[in-house]
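Re: [ENG-882] Designed sequences occasionally contain unexpected residues at chain ends

Forwarding the minimal case from QA. Structure tokens:
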């Protein structure tokens, strides 16, 4: 494959990677917002049934625990997405400059 073909392939694959990454990122964010809304619903249901200070404190603890778990899960998923994208981008860059495909085999020359 010529340098021009390799660079065209690199740009195409990098663009596909970016499109997929943005889609996955928004999917992660959508899930996080849905979980946050669910935690808020549960919190307000629990607050309606509060009969004393202890009930109120327990409702707040459950809510903040759910929010904390939601944030932690979202950050973990985003970190995995970044790690995968950096790894894939590195492979694409090596392929571009070395002229080898992702398996390490030389790419056919045109």
């Amino acid at each position: 494959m010529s340098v021009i073909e390799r660079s065209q392939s690199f740009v195409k694959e990098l663009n596909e990677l970016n499109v997929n990454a943005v889609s996955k990122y928004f999917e992660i964010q959508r899930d996080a917002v849905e979980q946050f809304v669910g935690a808020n619903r549960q919190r307000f249901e629990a607050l309606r049934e509060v009969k004393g200070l202890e009930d109120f404190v327990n409702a707040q603890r459950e809510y903040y625990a759910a929010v904390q778990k939601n944030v932690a899960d979202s950050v973990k998923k985003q970190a995995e997405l970044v790690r995968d994208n950096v790894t894939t981008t590195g492979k694409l860059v090596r392929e571009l400059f070395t002229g080898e495909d992702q398996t390490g085999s030389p790419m056919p020359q045109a």
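QA comment: On inspection the terminal residues look reasonable. Residues 3-98 form one domain. Proposing we downgrade this to a documentation issue.
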